[in-house]
Amino acid sequence: MRGPVPGQYPVRFGMAELLADLDWPNGWLLSVDGVAQSYVDLDDPTHLEFDYIRRIGDVIDCLGEPEAALDALHIGGGACTVPRYLAATRPGSRQLVFDADGELIDLVREHLRLRDVPALRVRVCDGREGVTTRRDESADLVVLDAFQRASMPGGLATREFIGDIARVLRPDGTVIVNVTDGPGLKFARRVVATLSLVFPQVLLVAEPAVLRGRRFGNLVLVGSKTDLPVPEITSKVHSAAFPARCVSGADLTKLCAGAEPITDTAPMVAPVPPARAFGG
Q: Which residue among 89, 115, 183, 231 is the one 20 to 30 A from 106 at the CA level?
C-alpha cells in the first residue's frame, strides 16, 4: 500500500490540500481552501493536534464507563479524526459517518487509511438527510462537526434538526456540537438556546479568549437528557496544556440570556472566520 501523497486535490466544496507534518512522523494536515479541516496521526490515533478536537476527546472520555464501546453517529467527517480516536480508546465501538463531500472522503480513503478504522462506515450524504434514516434510540453519541467553505451549514443548527438528533439518541445519550464564533458569540449563544429546548442538560467548553470575545475560535457544546459529568469534564479541560473553561448551569443561562433558538423558519447564517483565523 502506498503512503499518502502531499498535494492539492479538487473536492466538492473547494480545493483540498494534504500536507505532511515535518515535525511529527506520519502526522498529516488536511485543509480545504486554506482552512485546516483535520489532522491525523496515522501511527497514533489518540494524538489529537487541534485543541478543540482534544476537548471533544475529553468529553467523550468522561461519558459512561471508561473504555466502554459506544454506538456513535458523526455528522461531518473530514479525515475522521474523532472516529479514529473513538475506535482506539473504546474498542468495539460501532460508528457511522455522514459527509456530503464524496470527493473528500475518497481522498481520505486513498491517502489516510480510512478503511483501516475498525467498525467504521462512511456514507456520502447530507447530514439532515442521513439522520432521518436512523432508527429511534439507536445511538449513544452523536458528534456534529460539519463545515462547508469554513462555515457550519445553517440547517444543522435548527430546533427541528436537533430534535431529530434527540430522537436517534438513547435516553442516556449525548450530542457534541462544534461551532465557531467571534466577538459577541451571537451564533454560539443561539445554538445553546436551541440545544436547551431539546436537552435539559447543556454545557459549553471553550478557551477563555474565545469566551471573552477576544478572538474567533471553536466552542464545543454538549447536550444530554440525563445529567452530564460536569465535574469530570471541568477537571479534564482545566488541566489541559491549553486550559479551557466549562460553562454550565446558571453561568450558561446567564451567558446566553436573550438568545433566540434557531428554527427552520427563523434560520441564522453561521459566521465565516476572518482571513487566516485557522491557518491558510
A: 89
Q: Grid coordinates representing 176? A: 457534541
Grid cell 436537552 in the structure block, residue:
199
- Return the closest-CA partner of residue 46 out of 91, 95, 84: 84
How confident is the model over 230-280, as pLDDT tens digits? 999 999 999 988 899 999 999 999 999 999 999 999 889 889 888 655 443
- What's the pLDDT at 276? 59
CA gap 185, 217 in Å, rounded: 10
Model pLDDT for residues 200-223, shown as the tens digit of each residue: 999 999 999 999 989 999 999 999
DSSP 10-51: EETTEEEEEEE-TTSTTEEEEEETTEEEEEEESS-TT---SH
CA distance 58 to 49: 13
Residue reference for cell 436517534: 168
Report in angstroms the alpha-carbon separations of 173 from 2, 141, 147. Answer: 39, 6, 23
How far apart are alpha carbons 198 and 85 in whole angstroms? 28
The yes-or-no verdict on residue 150 having pLDDT over 80 is no
Give the DSSP letter of residue 277: B
Helices (H) and strands (E) in the chain, counts: 9, 12
Query: What is the pTM assigned to this prediction?
Result: 0.96
Q: Are 263 and 220 in contact (CB under 8 A)?
A: no
